[in-house]
Specification:
The complex is a heterodimer of chains A (180) and B (192). Chain A is 31% helix and 32% strand. By secondary structure, chain A is an alpha+beta fold. Chain A folds into two domains: 30 residues; 146 residues, Immunoglobulin-like, CATH 2.60.40. In chain A, strand 4 and strand 5 form a beta hairpin. Chain B is of the alpha+beta class and 192 residues long. Chain B has two helices and ten strands; from the N terminus they run αββαββββββββ. In chain B, the strands form two sheets. Chain B has a six-stranded antiparallel β-sheet with strand order 1-2-3-9-5-6, with no helix packed on it. Chain B has a four-stranded mixed β-sheet with strand order 8-7-4-10, with no helix packed on it. The longest helix of chain B has 26 residues. Classes of the chains: A alpha+beta (180), B alpha+beta (192). Chains A and B meet through helix 1, helix 2, strand 4, strand 5 and strand 8 of A and helix 1, helix 2, strand 5 and strand 9 of B.
Chain lengths: 180, 192
């Protein structure tokens, strides 16, 4: 009986390990995560519109149908990216996701405070390599550091009513995401 | 022989319990750090680098992208104020006001995060579209049959969830309770 109890205890401890390891490994093993879904429709370092979700078809679950959405699937291997998007009439936001779908940074039109949201995206190493002169450390140059070499920039413009969709689409069509 | 039997027993049990609890955690929506206000729950931390491993695993499995914290916050409801699961064959009256935000959207999804098909192709409301009362509050009737005023069709789906997303809002991780934040109530009405 004691022997059985020990085996049971061992099994429970091992079960805990199995549970934690699978939870921690899952994000890197998932084949149908948001990055993979976007990779199926978007080339690297280009802004691509994401079709509006319908009951039959959606690139990702839980997309907000009140928004026009575009994505830039980035790869910083060849150097930093310059990103810009003109803000639309209602509400525009730019969210950054790491390769593991972690939302590490997001900015909206009001926080940007201008007619255009403009920023430089780079890895930590590329940022460390930036020369230390005043031009670059100017306060109006927004630098975003990506924790991973690849990831997603999701650009969204709100369409509060159906009539706003063309204007929002136009604003997103003018978004740029390209190496410097 | 006894040793072998013990090992097989322990390993089998460990695999079954370990994988079983992982599956439960991923499908039952067990997540930490939620902010619950009435029938609504949000996980503001999921929109930051501080997202916990369980939420990361759930996001990886579903394929969604959480709302970034600099963008907004999403509140989810799968049950009404009395705790009864939302049923698309019944009427549910959503009424009240929303917390402070520049814009909000309300969307109806099934449990997998897909929009639900309906005859009028309405899947949600935005803060601009909704018809308000003179005091700024609003009523949205969520149900299978067409209604005058704000009607959110359920398409007769058996189970669904409502997601209220607040954009450009001070609501976030520091938010704790309903005393600070007014959320709309969800009251169940008659069923079909």
């Amino acid at each position: 009986m004691i022997r059985f109890g020990l085996w049971l205890l061992g099994a429970l401890l091992l079960a805990g390990v199995v549970h934690l390891v699978t939870i921690l490994l899952l994000p890197s093993l998932a084949t149908q995560d948001a990055y993979a879904r976007v990779a199926a429709i978007a080339p690297v370092n280009a802004v691509v519109p994401v079709p509006a979700p319908t009951p039959e078809n959606a690139v990702m679950p839980f997309m907000d149908p009140a928004f026009a959405t575009s994505v830039c699937r980035y790869d910083l291997a060849r150097g930093p990216l310059k990103f810009s998007v003109p803000i639309s009439q209602a509400y525009t936001s730019v969210s950054f996701y790491s390769r593991g779908d972690v939302a590490y940074y997001a900015i909206n039109d009001r926080a940007a405070g201008r007619r255009v949201i403009e920023l430089d995206l780079m890895t930590g190493a590329q940022r460390a390599d930036l020369p230390d002169n005043e031009d670059i450390t100017r306060a109006d140059r927004l630098i975003v550091t990506s924790p991973t070499r690849t990831g997603l920039i999701v650009i969204r413009a709100l369409t509060p009513e159906a009539g706003w969709i063309p204007a929002a689409r136009n604003a997103l069509a003018a978004a740029r995401c390209a190496p410097q | 022989m006894r040793l072998l039997f013990g090992m097989v027993f322990a390993l089998t049990l460990a695999a079954a319990i370990g994988l079983g609890t992982t599956w439960m955690a991923l499908t039952q929506g067990i997540a930490y750090g939620g902010v619950s206000i009435g029938a609504w729950t949000a996980w503001p931390k999921n929109g930051t680098s501080g997202i916990d491993p369980y939420a990361r695993a759930i996001v990886a499995r579903t394929g969604e992208l959480p709302v970034g914290s600099g963008d907004g916050v999403a509140f989810y409801a799968r049950a009404d104020d009395s705790g009864q699961a939302l049923d698309g064959r019944c009427d549910v009256l959503l009424s009240g006001i929303t917390p402070q935000a520049r814009f909000w959207t309300l969307t109806l999804y099934d449990f997998d995060g897909h929009l639900v098909a309906n005859s009028v192709r309405r899947h949600g409301f935005t803060s601009q579209e909704v018809i308000r009362k003179s005091d700024g509050s609003f009523d949205i009737m969520v149900g299978p049959r067409a209604r005058p005023g704000n009607w959110m069709p359920t398409g007769g789906a058996e189970r669904y969830q409502l997601v209220l997303r607040l954009y450009d809002t001070p609501i976030g991780m520091a938010t704790r309770s309903s005393s600070e934040v007014p959320m709309p109530t969800l009251r169940k009405g008659p069923c079909q």
